[in-house]
Amino acid sequence: AQSVTQLDSQVPVFEEAPVELRCNYSSSVSVYLFWYVQYPNQGLQLLLKYLSGSTLVESINGFEAEFNKSQTSFHLRKPSVHISDTAEYFCAVIYNAGNMLTFGGGTRLMVKP
Amino acid sequence: EAEVAQSPRYKITEKSQAVAFWCDPISGHATLYWYRQILGQGPELLVQFQDESVVDDSQLPKDRFSAERLKGVDSTLKIQPAELGDSAMYLCASSLATQGTGELFFGEGSRLTVL
What we know:
heterodimer, A: mainly beta, four-stranded antiparallel β-sheet, B: seven-stranded mixed β-sheet, globular
């Protein structure tokens, strides 16, 4: 079965430090890749997505993710985190242009002052 | 700003009781999804609607769960009877597109606790 793996359930980091949240997916003919963020007591929001074209995609708040087909990865990075980035981050994949979004288990990013 | 509305936000019930959740998607969004998110896990799709029709309900436990979207707008997810393992967050989402590329907009969820 096709799956999405987020190896780190929690990532503690100090403010202004860089961070990488890892995501790996099952190899497939085609994939659409997404990162969603869930702030405390809020619904999930789309952070960024890769559908085609440039393998490096960016969000408006400084996050970026790179589609690496050979590694079947879509890791999320930010060079300098803020307290306000504290949230749960979910990687999600649509396989073979279907209509079902498969989520990873989530990574809780905890930014400390 | 348009939002996906869900109610109730919190529901506590005893096992074997019936429970229902309601979702009102963003106006104009033809596709509606119900997801279940167990604590510490990612969301799992229960059912997807395109207008009033079910597109995918392969992961819906049909012996106790039902979902409807009679007029192709708002939707209700029902559980009867509720079991302890049903304790989870139930998320509703909507989108404009049916195939893959569209962004899903999520509601704040309905948290169910079964005692």
